[in-house]
Fold this sequence. Notes:
Helices cover about 30% and strands about 20% of the residues. The protein is α/β, with parallel strands linked by helices. The chain has an eight-stranded mixed sheet with strand order 7-8-9-10-11-12-14-13. Strands 1, 2, 3, 4, 5 and 6 form a six-stranded mixed sheet that branches.
Amino acid sequence: MERSKIVIFASSRSxxxxxxxxxxxxxxxKHEFIDLATKQISLxxxxxxxLGDDFLSVVEEMITYDDIILATPVYWxxxxxxxxxxxxxxxxxxxxxxxxxxxxxxxxxxxxxxYATDFPLGTASFEVPMQMMCDxxxxxxxxxxxxxxxxPPTIEAEKLKVFQKNLQSTALVENKIQGKxxxxxMAVLEDRKNLYTWMYESDxxxxxxxxxxxxxxxxxxxxxxxxxxxxxYYQNPLASCGHVFVxxxxxxxxxxxxxxxxxxxxxxxxxxxxxxxxxxxxxxxxDAIDTLCKHIYQQFGILFFWAMPxxxxxxxxxxxxxxxxxxxxxTPETAKLEFGGQDYIDSIYLLRDxxxxxxxx
Length: 361
Ligand SMILES: Cc1cc2nc3c(=O)[nH]c(=O)nc-3n(C[C@H](O)[C@H](O)[C@H](O)COP(=O)(O)O)c2cc1C
């Protein structure tokens, strides 16, 4: 059955760019609409002396819907003050009106925002607080549609389609990043065994680990693999300290890809591995690396990505090069010092600089 939807709108212009973003994103999707500019919403008050304003009536209406869509412009890298005031008031729903707050549990929360310049350090400062609120209220975060409002508006058709598809689905939204032909699903602990098997026990493993080609890189035991990937690699919401993703292609899980915590020079290492030789040569790795770099750059402002495949694995080196990674003119010794490690005795250090990409490119 279709899920009912309500937009909570909070802009300084009732018919500006954010309104246009809502119209575009929800053109064919039935929804109710509340413009907070027509309501009296007071600042949060520890004494709760303000409960005679419109806040509770907005919440009472809001909780009758399955999906809540917050619509806000980006003002100074964050949600509008009107939206922030409204969200601050959700603290009343944890205290004196807990009876209303508990009814938010299980609902889905989406965000529509319009912006005009850039997120130089990524969109995390804007989006993560709303994701964390969802987590706190036991709601399910469904994602954000970023509408670039400069004239003419640049509509990212693919991303809009994914946002609309998630909105219209009746299921809980999975944490996925959409690429051209693949999607990247945020891995959870249950994926660990598959990720291990694909990395160390598949017919593709021999091009990365163990004798005869890589005698210096023994195959890891399952226990060692579990210990070498901290739990945060599997946690939700996505954070800049690193995460593992399952690569999905044509409805199947076909491999893993991860980014790691950036170093002091804002460089994050990428690891990628596919499930089987039969999945190689289809452009899956290329699309997965490109999709992940762009998403992490946009979310967290991580500017450089690097990898250190072996020179004995030209297929891997070539894949990284196809998506803009360039070999660094470093000796193995200097590279080891610069990056604090060396996977293979003949590692080729490859670096991609995202500064030439706008968040939407
Ligand atoms: C006070 C103010 C602060 C803004 N700060 C940002 C910003 O940090 N980043 C950005 O991309 N755009 C910024 N903008 C531009 C707006 O996000 C953009 O024009 C938006 O589409 C306006 O939506 P509206 O018509 O609903 O107000 C700012 C605009 C205003 C008025």
